[in-house]
Amino acid sequence: MKISKSLDPSAKGSKDRAKLRVWLNGRFVSYNDARVPILTHSLQYGSGIFEGLRAYEAKRGTAVFRLRDHVKRFMNTAKIDSMQLPFSDKIISKAIMDCVRMNRLRSCYIRPFGFYDIDQIGISAYGKKVSVFIAAIPFGAYFGAGKERGIRCKVSSWHRINSEILPVEAKNSGNYINSIIANYEAKSAGFDEAIFISGEGYVAEGSGENLFIVRNNRVITPDDSADILLGITRDSVIRIAESMGLEVEERAVHREEMDSADEVFFTGTAAEITPIVNIDGIKVGNGKPGAITKMLAQKYEEVVAGGNPEFESWLAYV
């Protein structure tokens, strides 16, 4: 599997981006020509919706990982937010594939985004115009070298939002203010990432990742009672782990279980499988990526590269 070695994949320069073409409302335009008014509603109020997918260089060519599931969640988010998308799931799926193909990317990160394309003051977007863009960009390891050596996390002083406040199963822009301030708090304290605790006091997730712990050879992950986003990579790892004969538990996880865990790791489209080796200054296990984490990461890379027939249906070849 060949992936860019950029240490900061989310911060590619404008010169690189200018070469790309993006899909906007049914047609391809250059990255620099895809513009919206400065007073766009979704910029002011966080009313956009989005998805994040990866395409990998697999054995039979470039393949988008779990395309159908990501597009389904994109459409569901629009439904939850009462946003009337002007395009069907089939059109969105085709546009994603075309975007990767047109930009001749062997591996990349893909960002579909739906937004209220109106420039007005006032929060009401009822019945207003909705636009959709899709961008595909070169993308490496989200945590850089941390993907291999492990990262250090801080338990945030901010709690994870819950469904009484905002729809946690929707991937909308506004939800991620919660993540942004938690991540900033962790970074400013010298850590790589934040870990949220739910309003009920249980472990939830990272600022943009699901979390797993390993105890006594059992793979454990918070269930939806912690108001987590039920991630597609999370589901992939659960199913891969079960196919390897590992015992998997989805349940409430107490904060102190992370301190006594043998291993802890994040999962996510961007993060893939990233070991956590230190939480709040306390070593996880022996302070190095654990054996089960490394085994799952190896198997995951095999799956996305088209090397496992059992999960071949997860790949949509460009």
Produce the secondary structure layout.
Elements: H1 14-18, E1 21-24, E2 27-30, H2 41-45, E3 49-50, E4 53-58, E5 61-65, H3 67-80, H4 89-102, E6 108-116, E7 130-137, H5 146-149, E8 151-159, H6 176-188, E9 193-197, E10 203-206, E11 210-215, E12 218-222, H7 232-243, E13 247-251, H8 255-260, E14 263-268, E15 272-279, E16 282-283, H9 291-304, E17 315-317
Parallel strand pairs: 8-9, 8-15, 12-13
Antiparallel strand pairs: 1-2, 1-7, 3-6, 4-5, 4-6, 5-17, 6-7, 9-10, 11-12, 11-14, 14-15, 15-16
Explain this structure to me?
The protein is of the alpha+beta class and 318 residues long. The protein has 2 domains: 14-137, Aminotransferase class 4, branched-chain amino acid transferase, N-terminal domain (D-amino Acid Aminotransferase, Chain A, domain 1), CATH 3.30.470; 146-304, D-amino Acid Aminotransferase, Chain A, domain 2, CATH 3.20.10.10. 27% of the residues lie in helices and 29% in strands. It is built from 9 helices and 17 strands. The strands form 2 sheets. Strands 8, 9, 10, 11, 12, 13, 14, 15 and 16 form a 9-stranded mixed β-sheet that branches. A hairpin with a 2-residue loop joins strand 1 and strand 2 (27-30). The radius of gyration is 19 Å and the shape is globular. The model is unreliable at 1-8 (pLDDT under 50).
